[in-house]
Amino acid sequence: MYQIKTYNAIAPAGLNTFTADYALNQSEHPDAYLIRSVNLHDESLPTSLKVIVRAGAGVNNVPIKQATANGTAVFNTPGSNANAVKELIIGLLIMASRNLLAATTYSAQHAEADISQRTEHDKTQFNGIELTGKTLAVIGLGHVGSLVANAALNLGMNVIGYDPYLSADAAWNIAKQVQRAATLPDAVKNADFVTVHVPKNADTYHLIDEKALAAMPAGVQLFNYSRLGIVDNTAVISALTTKKVAHYYTDFGETQLAEHPAVTVTPHIGGSTIEAEINGATQAARTIMTYLETGNVHAAINLPDLNVPFNAAYRFTIIHQNVPNMVSQITAKLATANLNIATMANAAKNQTAYTIIDVDDLQQLSQTDLITELNKIPAVIRVRLLKQSVNL
Question: By three-state DSSP, how is residue 90 classified?
Fold first, then answer.
């Protein structure tokens, strides 16, 4: 029986994805955490914890280094809320182009006025523009950015995309009419609207800074529904003052943005739909089951991809440091135990490596001893022994 500990409100559809081999919140020694927004940075991770999956896009609330040192794989659920964010961006583009926020504010303030006269007189101040023929720069063409780009094309917009890290698989999701820019300044130089959809890391922190804003035409409208810190808010405030940026829309509030008339802050609702929560929870549950039952890894934050068909009777999965001579040390231990290797695979990601070894015959009495011997290898972090459908 696998033990799962959940944090936050997880969609019931996700929890119902688990099979009868899984128990929820019944042990202080969980095999897995299923989380959303809980901050784990001040938590001590139990040694029993083999995997953490966040039902959402980011993992800023997970202590990745601590998890890796603990031998705990970390996953998120990329793409599970992509459609939700896309629809919000498209809605905001329409609101921005038609001055809907200002118009509804006006109506609320003049509810007592003679609508037939007052509004007819004043409505021209809210004249907007049509999106057809306007240019949208999409910075980041991953799960969300590609959907936004394609949807904007369907609205008749010219779409310029910029993503120096675009994978071949992701490129297949982007319509051929989306123009690709070689640099960030090239992407934004003629944009009426700029929207940012990149992960937060050392390369993307303050990606939209004073220099990037200077490359945009005057009157541009900017959207950040990616992460706090991707846009330099101090630089944006300055650009708003000079009218370089006409309006800034973001899901991430900061004190300096509060009550600015040209800033619209939404309360982190980009991925907050019922459907996105179900998608994230369901995807997270499936990720947990796949990892615990097979050891296979796809798109982990701290482990390399390794997908090996589990056709043997037993499987060893070994998380270890990415240092020389590890595979030979591991196989030597198996040879000493007189085990024949049916399948072996190894991969590395940065300083961490992952090895899967399948064997057909393993005597019950030797299992604990062999795990002990493998753990004695200095650079080994965690050893797991899996049996078909059963975690031993």
Answer: helix
For residue 206, which phi and psi values (nearest 5 degrees)?
55, 40
End-to-end CA distance of the chain: 10
What does the DSSP 8-state code read for residue 31? S
Model confidence, pTM: 0.84
> Tokens in use for 169?
């698989």
The C-alpha atoms of residue 145 and residue 42 are separated, in whole angstroms, by 33
Rounded distance between C-alpha atoms, residue 328 and residue 64, angstroms: 28
pLDDT one-digit tens code per residue, 200-255: 889 999 999 999 999 999 999 999 999 999 999 999 999 999 999 999 999 999 99
Superfamily of domain 1-81+273-303: NAD(P)-binding Rossmann-like Domain (3.40.50.720)
Domain 82-109+117-265 has CATH 3.40.50.720: yes
Same fold, 1-81+273-303 and 311-392: no
Can you give the residue ranges of every domain in the chain?
Answer: 1-81+273-303, 82-109+117-265, 311-392
Buried b or exposed e, range 325-353, using 16+ CB within 10 angstroms: ebeebbeebbeebebeeeebebbbbeebb
pLDDT grade for 172, boundaries at 50, 70 and 90 = confident
CA dihedral 250, 252, 255, 259 (to 10 degrees): 40
**Burial of residue 373 (number of CB atoms within 10 Å: 0-12, 13-18, 19+):** middle
The CATH class of 311-392 is alpha beta
Q: pLDDT tens across 124-166, in order? A: 666 778 999 999 999 999 999 999 999 999 999 999 999 998 8
Helix, coil or strand: residue 58: coil
**Measured between alpha carbons, how far is residue 336 from residues 273, 287, 331, 366, 373 in Å?**
55, 34, 9, 11, 10
Say if CB 236 and CB 245 are below 8 A apart. Answer: yes
**CA angle centred on 87, ends 86 and 89, rounded to 5°:** 65
Can you state the angle between helices 100-109 and 82-97, rounded to 10 degrees? 60
